[in-house]
Amino acid sequence: MSNGLVSLVGAGPGNPELLTIKGKRRIQEADVVMFDRLIDPSILSYASSDAELINVGKLPHHHKVKQSQINQMLVDFSLEEKKVVRLKAGDPFVLGRGGEEAQFLKVNGINFEIVPGLTSAIAGLAAAGIPVTHRDYASSFHVISAHLKKENGSLDWPNIAHQEGTLIFLMGMENLDLIVGQLLKNEKSADTPVAIIQWASQWRQRDLTGNLDNIQAKVQKSGIGSPSIIAVGDVVKLHDEINTVLPLFGKRILVADNGSKRLINGLRDNGASVVTYRRGTNEKTIFDIGKILNYENIFFENFPSFETFIDELNEKNRDIRTIGDTRLLVKSTKLAKMIKDTGIIVDDVIDAEELAVLDNVAIIGGAGSHNLGKDNFFKIYQRNTSSNNNLDFDTYTEMLFISKVAVTDLMDSIDVEQAESIKSIKALAMGESVQELLLSQGFTNVKLVTPKTNEVINDLLEGKI
């Protein structure tokens, strides 16, 4: 029996950049992605726009989808010859259900693979400046689940308490009182350092340190909760010495995925959490290029209109020489330079007023053009949107729009309720035309920023925006 492939993928501790290269590739190739609740939604943006995204996340005492159902879904999708990613927080084989899922797939004759991930037990502590081992403090570490099956019974507390290495408890916040009580009862010193890291490696990470004597009171006062890692041991002393907080930590910025990584990487390198959303794609429409070539002037509204025009020429076994003495016009020096980089030099740069009085000109553009309806306008491409309904808009501190098309790509790809909800989030507009569009669409917190990457990052660093 032929079937697809199930990839049990570890997503790492939370930060999307800590996903492995193979894990990212498997998500990009997947027909179906079944993900847990602790997965940062931005990781899902790697999935194809055609992929089916299924939230099978679990909360304490509440399973959104039962494990038996998850197991069967993996089998059923695979039998439909689909590529399935079971995306799990951390590493799929460290205190998760990855082993059980692998067993079920094996029994049912399903092709599967394991794609390891960085376990939060190690990487999560590192994100808070806490090494699990250190020559001066600990030569071993012990990862312990504080959330066991009932049939497993209680933990061997006397053995755990007398271990000299670092104790790392996962899924333990609900049982913090039990953990502290049992360690003290079994003669662990009350002065033993304790750290709690919530949402480790993510933009919302919170750290709390204390000792076995005072950590419960500190937790109650701070309100820190699940999901958290609890670390017990002398390595916690290194938190204040090693931990580094980057200047843009705490900012979560939504940016269009435009293929250029300079802006995105620059923000991330300074500590911001950057989430990219899917862009629309251009699709050529049916048009008569012969009619366009009858005009003495051709005005390109944007670079996609130029690309589509040249592509149509090539399909008709023609090239730029076909236009003869026809003048090529654009609206900005930036667009003129982009076209020049392809080897073609435009004849002139004109503004809207000059265009309005120009005779014998074909205006070519897309569906969003303000020239729609004019007799001399040719819509030669249309914009197809990709859904972004998976984005969690409650978490963004800023949205950064690099162009007008980036605005429409987002607004056209989410539902009406989401579109209304984001209008109060601070919107950073890279250019006056972008600012005008955002204001016209009802955004209430719009800030004009320079269209230059370095200056945008510097303004954020200096708190100007």
UniProtKB/TrEMBL annotation:
Query: What CDD domains does the entry give?
Result: SUMT
Cite the EC number. Answer: 2.1.1.107
Coiled coil ranges (UniProt) are none
* Gene Ontology molecular function, alphabetical: uroporphyrin-III C-methyltransferase activity
- Keywords associated with the record: Methyltransferase, Porphyrin biosynthesis, S-adenosyl-L-methionine, Transferase
Family that this chain belongs to = Belongs to the precorrin methyltransferase family.
The protein's name is: Uroporphyrinogen-III C-methyltransferase
User: Source taxonomy lineage?
Assistant: Bacteria, Bacillati, Bacillota, Bacilli, Lactobacillales
